[in-house]
Structure formats: structure tokens, C-alpha cells
Amino acid sequence: MSDTRDNKPIDIALVGASAPERASVSGSGRLNLFDLDRPRMEAFFEQLGEKRFRAHQVMKWIHHRYVTEFEGMTDLGKALRAKLEQHAEVRVPQVVFDKASDDGTHKWLLGMDTSNAIETVYIPDKGRGTLCVSSQVGCALNCQFCSTATQGFNRNLTTAEIIGQVWVAARHLGNVPHQQRKLTNVVMMGMGEPLANFDNVVRAMSIMRDDLGYGLANKRVTLSTAGMVPMIDRLAEESDVSLAVSLHAPDDDLRSELVPLNRKYPIAVLMDACVRYARRKKASVTFEYTLMKGVNDQPHHAQALARLMRQFDRAVQMKDAAKVNLIPFNPFPGTRFERPDEGAIRAFQKILNEAGLIAPVRRTRGDDIDAACGQLKGQVMDRTRRSAEFRRRLAGQGMGDAA
Ligand code: SF4
């Protein structure tokens, strides 16, 4: 079969890649297939002059069997493999290092380019395994108690870089979608504000939920936001995932201090957006509340939080529409906040429980590898002692120089 398309450049815009993803076309001009959800993968194969089912075969090779070399995709013809080689690649993030905790938690530091790295954490628990995925390198929102915020914002991750995190973890775990699921949940709760990188995050979440991707149920993919209100409404229109909101305070004065975004979208406005989301999806919303000693852990805070949550239940007209996750603060070097003692945590929880709220205390995991929530802090080039080590490791893996 003659194929005149072999030498034609692929039109990335036709495949549907948005501007930031064009960065996923490497210097060789080849498209990183991690970037493509099912419709875009089909469009790409159409441009190659191939049938749609070929796109599905390749997705299975990549996301189910972790094969990244076209040569190894043995049910594709030789000519197609050569064409793919010419126009595409599957570029996996570089594992700079990874660490396993005694409790089964596993953390990866993944190099995204020569100067940026992010962290991804896997947390196994009874009957499930949750992967905490990053959406940005750093974060611009400057929440006062957050380790990531201390490094500022570098850039958004592409869809490929978000899915690359899932791929690295799933392969390491020997996850087989639909059969042997080690990876049962994903939370977009790592570095960054996912709604500030909307298109790339939504597309990545669709690959996570696709049967040809990682096959996760909608409710097992959770997006956690600090409260970007207009984007919560857009998310309700364009995706179908669970929503979590980083609340951390029951009143505007305190929340504006802890989460500066609250000055733009105060609690009442945020809660209205959450009500719209919960009603539209007919699903609960999880409110995360990091407990900090002497800051937001007093009984009057718990009472005010309980009132706010009950108000939310009534507005949604659904029992247990609001769920609260209590997260004892995990101190990191340089922070002014402290973790409350166990008695204060339990007393806070008791007030919520007595008000009829579901409010588990999230156990701290991976303490020995700094993997607990709020400690996701990527390597900050030129600012930390670890940067030299990071550069050395990248150079050792052929990324950047060791200068
Ligand atoms: S808590 Fe989340 S939104 Fe706030 S600064 Fe940290 S990463 Fe950004």
C-alpha cells in the first residue's frame, strides 16, 4: 500500500493539542503520545491515514502494558511502526530518584526538563491505592501553610507530564487496569493548583478514566482546588470527577490570611459554587481542613465549621453532601505553624461528629520520606542545597549539564 502521508508533517493543531502542549513536541518534531486522550489519538491516526482501532491498540500498549517503543507493539504492521517512529514518541518523565517508606508509601522525584522536577506520591491503604499527582511546577497561590508555595511558581505541566506521573507509578506497581488494580484512586492534590492549568488537567483526567487509559471510575479521580470559583463551574460542565476544596478556615478573616485566594473568592461565593457542583453531579464535596495549633483548631472554629457544612447540606438538599477531611499539619523546615496535639485533634473531630458530620482524620503517611500532605516540595534550582545533587543526577541521565 503506497502511503504518501509518510513524509507529511503532522499538524499538531488538527490533532487538537493546545498551545502549551506543543511543548510536548520534542526537538525532533515528534509528538509525545502521552499528551493525547482518545479523541485526539484517533485524530492523530486519521492524519497518519490509519484506522481508528489502531489508535486504541496503541493506547493499550502504552497505558496497559507500559510499552513505549513502537518496535515492541507487535500487533502493528511494520509500516505503521515506522510511521509512528517518524512522527511520534512516548516520552517518559525521568525518575531522578524514588523512595519507599516503611508504611508502603512511595515517592518519586520526576524530572520534567533540565531545570524542573515535581513529586508524585503513592499511598496504599486498606483495599485501595491512591496516587497524589502534581499539576504545576510550584504554585502561585501562596497558601501560608504550604511547603510547595515556598518555591513560587515555575510553570504548568503538560497533559503528557501529568499522565507521565501516573504511568511511572502504575508501571512500578505492576498495575493492570481492569484486572490487577494496585492504583485505584488518583487525587490531583500534589504540587500546584489544578484549576489554574485547566485544559491539561481535564484532558489528563479523561485519560485516567478512559478504559483504554487507566480505567478509573469517575468518582475515584478527585480534583482538589483552593477555590478558583469560575473554574469550578467550568469543571462541572466539562468533566465528571470528584471535587475537594481546601477550606482550612470557617471564616473569611482567617481564611484570607491562610489562603490568599479567599480575598478574591470569599467563603460564601466559594460555597455557592460548591453547591452548584454538588447539585449538578449529585455527589458530595470533600472539604479539607488542615489543623494548625492555635490557629484554626479551637472549639469555636469547629463549631463554625460544623454550621457551614450543615448549611451546605441544606443548600444541596442532600444528606452528607459535605464531607470533611481533617489533616493534622505536617511541619516542614522554616514554617511558623505547628501540629496540634492529639487531644486537640480529637476534640475538634468530636464537635464535628456530634453535629452529624463525617470527618475522618487523615493519617499521616510516609513521614520518613517527607511524603505527607503539604510536604510536596520539588527541587528548587539554585535555591536549595539539593540543587547541585539534582543537577548531577539529571546530567547523569543525559538531561542538562552538571555545571
Ligand atoms: S496548598 Fe495547594 S493551592 Fe495552596 S499554595 Fe500549596 S499547592 Fe498551591
Automatic annotation (TrEMBL):
Active-site residues from the entry: 119 (proton acceptor), 373 (s-methylcysteine intermediate)
Radical SAM core domain sequence ranges: 125-368
GO-annotated biological processes: rRNA base methylation; tRNA methylation
Return the SUPFAM superfamilies for the record.
Radical SAM enzymes (SSF102114)
The Enzyme Commission number assigned here is 2.1.1.192
Question: Which reaction is the catalytic activity of this chain?
Answer: adenosine(37) in tRNA + 2 reduced [2Fe-2S]-[ferredoxin] + 2 S-adenosyl-L-methionine = 2-methyladenosine(37) in tRNA + 5'-deoxyadenosine + L-methionine + 2 oxidized [2Fe-2S]-[ferredoxin] + S-adenosyl-L-homocysteine; adenosine(2503) in 23S rRNA + 2 reduced [2Fe-2S]-[ferredoxin] + 2 S-adenosyl-L-methionine = 2-methyladenosine(2503) in 23S rRNA + 5'-deoxyadenosine + L-methionine + 2 oxidized [2Fe-2S]-[ferredoxin] + S-adenosyl-L-homocysteine
The record lists [4Fe-4S] cluster as bound by 139, 143, 146
Q: Which UniProt keywords apply?
A: 4Fe-4S, Cytoplasm, Disulfide bond, Iron, Iron-sulfur, Metal-binding, Methyltransferase, rRNA processing, S-adenosyl-L-methionine, Transferase, tRNA processing
Q: For this UniProt entry, what's an example GO CC term?
A: cytoplasm
Positions contributing to S-adenosyl-L-methionine binding? 192-193, 224, 246-248, 330
Q: Under the GO molecular function aspect, what terms does this record hold? A: 4 iron, 4 sulfur cluster binding; metal ion binding; rRNA (adenine(2503)-C2-)-methyltransferase activity; rRNA binding; tRNA (adenine(37)-C2)-methyltransferase activity; tRNA binding
For this chain's record, the cofactor binding note is: Binds 1 [4Fe-4S] cluster. The cluster is coordinated with 3 cysteines and an exchangeable S-adenosyl-L-methionine.
Per its UniProt record, the required cofactor names are: [4Fe-4S] cluster
Where would you say this protein principally sits, based on its record? cytoplasm
Q: Which InterPro entries match?
A: Aldolase_TIM, Methyltransferase_A, RlmN_N, RNA_MTrfase_RlmN, rRNA_lsu_MTrfase_RlmN/Cfr, rSAM, rSAM_sf
Q: Which domain of life is it from?
A: Bacteria
Localization annotation: Cytoplasm
Q: What does this protein do?
A: Specifically methylates position 2 of adenine 2503 in 23S rRNA and position 2 of adenine 37 in tRNAs. m2A2503 modification seems to play a crucial role in the proofreading step occurring at the peptidyl transferase center and thus would serve to optimize ribosomal fidelity.
Q: What else is known?
A: Reaction proceeds by a ping-pong mechanism involving intermediate methylation of a conserved cysteine residue.
Q: Which family does it belong to?
A: Belongs to the radical SAM superfamily. RlmN family.
HAMAP family (UniProt xref): RNA_methyltr_RlmN
Which NCBIfam families does the protein's record reference? rRNA_mod_RlmN (TIGR00048)
Protein known as: Dual-specificity RNA methyltransferase RlmN
Q: Which organism is it from?
A: Vulcaniibacterium thermophilum
- Provide the gene name from the record: rlmN
